[in-house]
Each structure stands twice: as structure tokens, then as C-alpha cells.
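FAQ: What does the model actually see?

It sees only this:
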Amino acid sequence: MTSIAHPHSLQLPAGVAGVERIAAALRSLLPARRAAAAPAPVVNTLLQQERAEAALARATLGIAVSNIRRYD
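And it is asked to produce this:
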């Protein structure tokens, strides 16, 4: 595996395959839908949490892709 040195000592896998691996890892961190039997206020809270986590994952992936493009 080829890695790219990151300014903060983070090793990122290089190239398109690396981006796909990062995306898969981030997707695996997102929680499964837990709201099936929960009351409405809990459902709304869980959905808001999932949206925030998804936004964070997208932002993290965007940073990773940017760094890969910069150092690749």
C-alpha cells in the first residue's frame, strides 16, 4: 500500500483506491437506522444526529480527497 505523508502525521492511502477505502471506512462509522420503534421526538433526535454525522463524514472525506490530490 502506498501512503502519502500528511502534515499532521496521518497516513492516507494514495490514489482512487485509497479514496474509495476512506469513503468505505467513513460509511462504516455512520450508525444504522435505529429509529424504527422509537417515539417521534427520539426519531427526530436520531435523524438529526445521523445528519450531523453524515455531514462530518462528507467533510472529512472532502479533506482527504483534497489532501490526496495535493500530495498525489
